[in-house]
Design a protein that fits this description.
This protein is an alpha/beta fold. 52% of the residues lie in helices and 8% in strands. It contains ten helices and five strands. A five-stranded parallel β-sheet has the order 2-1-3-4-5. The longest helix has 25 residues. It is elongated, with a radius of gyration of 21 Å.
Length: 272
């Protein structure tokens, strides 16, 4: 099932979700009824023609059973929220191989190594923040991805996990992480929401020290493992539909990152 659909179709579904969310935001506008009718037609075409989905998913069956609500003047905000929720679940069911965003769960005490990791993600091609675009990474300690002023930190992070985005969580396991109730709460939220995750082990830590609810059978890797970094890069190229990197450039970027990790590890050993 997951090999059937393309990244372009994934983006088509994202565009429809954006239209639906905009309609919910502008629900009380005078043009709401006609806009919802158009949205209904767009969704029907997406599901029935572009994706050629019938009732193979319970979310699709529910959506079809309640679909006419978008064609009625008595449509409520709750009805429209139901449509958005259904589209989001369809997206996660049929496009689990594609992601909108990477959420990095980490201890702030590991900020230096996480900053280097983010730079490597950008070297791979994961989008940086630009004017009017928040980028493809969420990391609360990074200067490039700071939580907006006057936002509730916990609620803002929760909103990142509760969004309509397909999120890949990268968990940076370390002694600092395991000693932080806040980090363990993040790991618990990832588990409860069944968010796909990639475990990465930092230099001062080992696999047998990992504790918690998250599936221990998910293959992780030590952050200094050159071969696994190569594999991780290849996965991200597919997950985000990124252009292939010139291998010589990638080796240079990766080896620079590994040098920074080695220096970080030496500093940590000295401090301990």
């Amino acid at each position: 099932m997951t090999d059937t659909y393309t990244y372009e179709q994934f983006q088509d579904l994202n565009e429809v979700l954006t239209l639906a969310k905009e309609e919910l935001t502008n629900f009380d506008m005078p043009s709401g009824y006609s806009n919802r009718y158009k949205l209904r037609q767009i969704i029907k075409n997406l599901i029935g023609i572009s994706l050629q989905l019938s009732d193979s998913s319970p979310y699709i069956r529910k959506l079809y059973c309640n679909f006419d609500v978008l064609n009625e003047r008595r449509c409520t905000e709750r009805d429209l929220s139901f449509v958005i929720e259904s589209l989001t679940k369809i997206k996660r069911d049929f496009f689990p191989q594609y992601f909108d965003k990477i959420f990095i769960s980490h201890s702030e005490k590991d900020k230096d190594i996480v900053d280097s990791f983010i730079s490597l993600l950008h070297d791979i091609g994961v989008q940086k923040p630009t004017s009017g675009n928040e980028g493809k990474i969420f990391c609360s300690s990074s200067d490039a991805y700071l939580i907006p002023l006057r936002e509730n930190n916990v609620e803002y992070i929760k909103s990142q996990l509760d969004s309509t985005d397909n999120v890949l969580a990268v968990i940076m396991y370390s002694k600092n992480y395991m000693n932080s109730p806040y980090c363990l709460n993040e790991a618990g939220a990832i588990w409860i929401k069944n968010i796909p995750f990639q475990p990465i082990i930092l230099p001062d830590f080992s696999f047998n020290e990992v504790k918690g609810f998250l599936n221990p059978n998910i293959t992780g890797f030590e952050i200094s493992n050159k071969s696994r970094l190569n594999d991780f890069k290849e996965q991200l190229l597919g997950n985000f539909n990124l252009p292939v990197i010139n291998y010589n450039v990638w080796e240079q970027d990766r080896d620079k990152f590994l040098k920074e990790i080695k220096e970080y590890s030496q500093v940590t050993m000295t401090e301990n």
